[in-house]
Amino acid sequence: MTGTAGRDSAQRTAAPDPRPRPRKLVFIVVLTLIAGLLSAALASPIVLGAGFAAKAVSDDFENLPTALPDPILGRDSKILAADGSTLAVLHGSENRVPVTIAQVAPIMKTAIVDIEDSRFYAHHGIDFKGLARAAVEDSGGSLSQGGSTITQQYVKNVLLYSADSAQAAKDATDKSIARKLREARLALALEQRWSKSQILEGYLNLAYFGHAAYGIGAAAARYFGTTVDKLTLAQAALLAGLVQSPSADDPISHPQAARKRRSEVLTRMQELGHLTAAQEQAALAAPLGLHPVAPPATVDPCPGSIAPFYCDWVRGQLRSDTRLGATQTARDQRLLEGGLIVRTTLDPAVQAAAQNAVDQTVEPANSITIAEAIVQPGSGNVLAMAVNKPYGTGLGQTTIRVLTTPALQPGSTFKVFTLAAALDQGLPLSTTFYAPSCYVSKIYKIGTSSGRTPLAGCSNGFSNADPAEAGNYNMVRGTWQSVNTYYIQLEEKVGVKSVADMAIRLGIPAGRLSDVGANSGSLTIGSYVVSPLDMASAYATLAARGLRCEPRGVLSATTGDGKPVDLTPPPACQQVLNPLVADQVTSVLEGVITNGTGSPNASLYGRPAAGKTGTTDGYSSAWFVGYTPQLAAAVEAGNISAPHKFPLTNVTAGGRYYQHVFGGDIPALTWSRTLNAALINQPNATLPPPAGG
Fold this sequence. Notes:
The chain has 693 residues and is of the alpha+beta class. 39% of the residues lie in helices and 12% in strands.
C-alpha cells in the first residue's frame, strides 16, 4: 500500500452496520454459488439439498488460504552516488504512478464506487446479492456474469499482478467456481485486516485504464495531463467507466463509446443521490476534454548517467541479487517498480577525474579503448569506472562490461603476485638470478599449453622486451625493469601454483585461473585475461597491507518510505597476507614509479605511490596498476574487439605519437592524471620506505 487516508463522505454514517457477520457470510456465499449453479440446470430436487452441500463446502472454504501477496507497484527506483546525487532512474515496463487515497479527488472515489460497487461500504468484501444474480444468470459451471465487489476485483488484480508463471496467471483469471471461492475467501480475510480506504487505494493503483495507463495516477496523466487531486466530475466519470472495458470504451480511439459509457456513470451517480440533476446535465454536455500525454519510454537509464559503465555494473549486480527475489522476473519487478533508493559507493569527484583522464589521454573516436577501475583499499568500495567510449553505441557497445569482464591480458602487472608469493615464502629481496635475453626453462615448455606464442629468435624460451636487459638482477631491480627472464626463474623457485594461489588470495577471481597448470610458466608475465576491476581489487589488498575486501557497489538500500532493504552487508574483508610482506611488495613497487618502467608518466605530485607496468607480447595490450593508501586503480589499453589483430603500434592518441605503446605510456599517464586530480583535496598519506635497488 502507498498509504491510507480517512474514508470519504459515503462512509461517514452512524447507522447500524447492515452487513452479515463473516461466519454467517461464509455459509451464504457457498450456498449462493452452489444453488446458483444447480438452478441453472433447473434441478429442483437437487437444489433442496444445496444447503447440505453448502455446509460441507463451507468447511473447506474456511480452510482456503487467506494471505494475499503485497504487490510491488510501479514506483521508479533510483540509483544514487555516495553523496546522494542521482546516477540513474530505473523505470518499469508499466506506466504506473502510485498515489495515496488522500491524494485522490473525492469525486473520483465516488464515481468509481458508484459504477463498480455501489454497496462497497456496506459489505464485508462479498456482495452476495450480486453474486446470487451472477450465479443464476450463468450456466455451464462458470461465473462470467460478474458480481465482483471492488475488494474481489482488487484481490483478482493482485493475484494476476503477482503471478510468476503462466499457470498462476491462468488461475487468477479462470472463470470457475474454484477461482471465485478462492477470491471470495481472500476478500473476506482482507476486509478483516484493511479499512475500506486502504482497499480502495489498492484497487485504484492496480486497475488498468487502457492506453498503457496502470492505476489512477497514470490514467489522470495519460488522458488529461493532470494529477488525481485535480480531476473534475466529467474526467472522473470517464475514467471510472474505463475499468469495465478499457479497449471498447477507449476515449482516444473510440470517443463516442467513451462518451456513452461516461453518461452511464453520471446517470448512476445521480440515481444514487451523489449528483444533482444540474450537475449531471452539465457533465453530460461537457466535451471529453482529452489532453493525452505519452507514457514515459522504458529505456536504458545508464547512457544519461555521469558513470554509465558503473551504472550498468551496479544494475547487473542488483538484478542477480536473490535477496530481491527468487526469480529473474521477480527481481526485475522489484528493481524497476519497487521504488527502491539504492545508494552506491561511487564517488562523483573520483569518477570525474577518471573520465577526464581517459578522454584526455585517448580521445573517444580512437580505435583504442582505455578502461579504468578504481577501488578504495580497506573497504572494497568501487569508487569509479571510466571508459573512453560512449556507453551503448558503436565501439562503446563492445566495452559495456569490459571493466568487469576479462578482455585483455595484463602483461607484467601479474608479476606482483610472483613477487608476493616469493616474499611470503621467505625469499629475501636480494634473491638474484642471471637473466639472459632468452631463457629456456627446464620446467615450462613453450607452446600452446603455455599460453604464450614463441617469439622470433627465442623459439624455445622466454625473452625480454629488450635484449640489452640481460644481466644479474635481484627482486627489486628485476621488478623495476620488469625483466621477464628473471621472473620466469623466480616463478620456477616458488611454483606456478603458489603464484596462482597468491593472485586468488589477493583478489583475482579463481575462475580466471581455473585452467592454470604446472606448465603454465607464462602466468607470471600475464598471459591469462583479467578485468581492470580484478586488478584494482588485488592491488588494493596490497595498499591495505594484506587486507582483502571484496569489491562492492552498494552502500545502502531503502524503500521509498525509508524502510531498509537487505542488500548491503558490511564490507567482506579478510587478512590474507602478512602486513610486513605486503609492505615489502609496496616498497618494491614504489621504485617502479620513481626508478623503473613507470617513470616518469606514473609520477604523482609530491605523493608516494606504488605500481606496476604491463605490456603483452606483440603489444596487444598495455596496463598500469597502482595505488596510494587511499586509492587503487587499474588502467588497461587495447583494441577490445581484436587486440591481437590490431596491436598498439604506430598509435596517435591525445596529441602524441607512439611507435609502440608500453604500460608506462598511455596507461601510466592515464593513471597519474586520474590520481592527481582525485587526490587533490586528500591528505598526503605515507607508504613504507622504498626498497633499495
